[in-house]
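## tool: complex_structure
## caller: assistant
## args:
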Amino acid sequence: MMKMILRRLASSCLSLFILVALVFFLAHLTPGGPAYSILGQKATPESVAQLNQRLGLDQPLLKQFGLWIWHLLHGELGYSYLLNRPVGQLLWVYERNTLIFYTVSIIISTALSIALGLIQGVWFGRWPAKLIGAFQLGFYALPPFFVAAMLILWFAVDVHWLPASGIIDLRDPHAGIASFAAHLVLPVTTVSLLTVSSLSRYFGEAVHEELGKDYVRTARAKGVSFASILFRHVMRNALRPLITILGLSFPYIFTGGVIVESVFNYPGLGWLMWRSALSQDYPILIAIVLVIGVLTVLGNLLADLVNGLLDPRASYE
Amino acid sequence: MSEAAMLSLSKSLGGRLAGNATLKAGLVLSGLILFLGFVAPFLDPVNPYTIHPSHALQAPNGQFLFGTDELGRDALALLLSGGFTTLIVALPAALLAFFIGVTYGFLSGLGPAWLDRLLMRLLDVVLALPSLIVLLFFAALVPQSNFNLILLLGLISWPSLARLVRNEVLAQRGRDFMLAARQSGASSAYLARVHLLRVIAPILVVNGTFMIGDSVLATSALSFLGLGVQPPQESWGSLLQGALDIAALDPWWLILPPGLLIFGALLAASLTGQGLLQIWGNKR
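## result:
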């Protein structure tokens, strides 16, 4: 187990290093190089030369790379000339909103996927499973922006039940938690519908497959109740692929986030990424690419470790 | 060939095609989408850019079958020209990504072990970056035109196919017919062209089909975000975005059609791919 953890950690570190090198390369692709992207396109040549010297950008490329990593390790991610604040600070403000949004969405999606997957696995081939299958196929092919558009049209425009966009600042004394929650309903529903459609399918297939295995027959022959088999044995094994997929979809749930956050004008990390791309605010773009890459590598690592804990066999694979 | 043999052959081929409802539905839907994208725009005489200020934002009626947008442009004409633009970007982009992915996969699978390890490690990292994030970064970087959009989508959407092809090549490489061919002096290029390509063709076709769907989705998503097809040209994604901007006025006739068409295109690719997978999966 310990050996597996160390091996996975080493492999993740290597991936992180290549990732950082790749992003460094991307940063050098931006027009005029990093100095321009920090000072803005209207910067004078003198100020660019000055900043280049200060940041060490007049040094050889390899030394620059070293310096860049040094800055990163100290949390210096650059400066957004558009929003006039350090990128590190900005990222944290927006990341907080995204975290709230996605924690709620992931909890709801996972719970629903497990419930639907169990139904689908147990009643495989009969009408409840078929009904769920139709839902999965339909929503799997639906583009997120269309789902969001329909929800806005129905619930925000036609019946005025819910607000269509924005967020309420919790520090504002007049905006209650109820208003904050109401603003989250439509974005969370959009993400959950799309996530559940694929997650529940994987889980349902896993449950169905596990139920057909020999250990289930043995347990039934011994007289173990079906509920006990389902929840104590089958669930444990069927959760493995679900956890791997959750880990892998960590960043993909986020990319769905760019679209959902932009549709609902929800000021999270995806929204910030979108606005920065539209206004070519490179320091933010580079920082977000980096953060997402790191999150992905960590998400994979986390999924492997959790799987190793759930099933010791996985650590020898 | 005897009549009986002819009959059984046509039955097995035609039977597989006709017997598979998923594939049939996918092909019919694909045909419909291609017709709407490449034929219908030239049958409709209405200029999508003509503005009728006195008829702005009208629901579907006798004069404007699909209504008009907030500028008074004919929604049907916009929808058809938007479809043409969407497909003229998405299809070449998918083709480009397909060729890069196949080439990368073959290089990695057939090349020496060190090259394989290097290429796969690089792939791991590239796959760690969600393609939409990378797309946004580069869409901000390069000047926006349909040609650049095709290059961008093509250069970014290949990694998952590359991994699949590489794994498949590795799996086939050790099989007896490959060893026999190598023994008789076949070069890697010959092996790739004559033997491997034929064996993994079904997998390539199925995944190529899925990639077309992904490409339509990516094109629409970028256009929806304002970083894809640029005005005055419209695409399904940008039409949906434009309609959503005025969502408070409840313009359902501007939101439903482009959304349903994107959904239709994605469903067409998905059903066709699933159908092909089913009939080829059965054959094996």
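## assistant note: The mean pLDDT of chain B is 85. The radius of gyration of chain B is 23 Å. Handing back to user.
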